[in-house]
Write a structure and sequence with these properties.
Length: 232
């Protein structure tokens, strides 16, 4: 859904301005199968930066808000390498995520997921870290990697805190923020992305985690933070 909001905003942004950051608030539950309206507003367009807001509306109610910043490249006096480190095992060493009826979300049928760090969701793990590799199963032109593709694969991966529970529990993402480390470099349609997540705290029914996403050749693509509520 966030990837679709990004697509809606692209029509308002000059092509030379790349997505730099997103901030998402999941205000209300979405009814699967019911129509959605994507209402986009340009908040400000400066010389090099465009700020936009996209409200996702269902049955007259705002269910999600997405704030985005697009910016053109500019001269910089120095460059600083990312502090995050690429530590995901090779794809061949990772375990395919099984699809379990009434446990695995239906949307994951569209993704090829290989688990390589930590334990799978609802296994009572003791490690706060999870990660692995992910890509769309569809290798057609419609699934060609882009910023929207990257947002979709980030959105698809389960929050790392779910691995700490010893059985299924209802959860809901409250907020999600993403920062793109660099403008997207178009890649083949079968491109894998590596993702690493770490739960930072879990208290009073809320969990927060951080994430980093990497290209197959080890380049940092994006950083993310997520807050979820646990109902049980």
């Amino acid at each position: 859904m966030v990837a679709l909001a990004h697509e809606a905003m692209l029509t308002y942004v000059p092509s030379e301005r790349a997505l730099r950051s997103l901030s998402v608030a999941f205000v209300a539950p979405v009814i699967i199968g019911e129509p959605l309206i994507f209402s986009t507003e340009v908040l400000r367009e400066g010389r090099g930066i465009t700020y936009l807001q996209c409200r996702i509306i269902q049955h007259g109610q705002t269910v999600t808000t997405v704030m985005a910043c697009f910016g053109a490249a500019r001269q910089q006096a120095f460059a600083l390498a990312a502090d995050a480190r690429f530590e995901v095992p090779l794809i061949e060493a990772c375990e395919p995520l099984p699809f379990l009826h009434e446990v695995t979300p239906l949307y994951l049928q569209n993704f090829d997921v290989r688990w390589g760090i930590g334990e799978m969701p609802f296994t009572g793990a003791t490690s706060r870290r999870t990660g692995g590799w992910i890509r769309f199963k569809d290798g057609s032109e419609t699934a060609r990697p882009s910023e929207s593709y990257l947002l979709a694969v980030m959105d698809a991966w389960a929050p790392s805190a779910l691995s700490l529970f010893d059985g299924p529990v209802p959860t809901s993402t409250l907020t999600w923020s993403i920062e793109l480390a660099q403008p997207f470099r178009h890649q083949p349609t079968d491109t894998w992305f590596a993702i690493q997540l770490s739960s930072e705290y879990a208290e009073q029914g809320y969990c927060a985690s951080s994430a980093s996403v990497w290209s197959a050749d080890g380049q940092l693509m994006a950083l993310g933070r997520q807050t979820i509520a646990v109902f049980g």
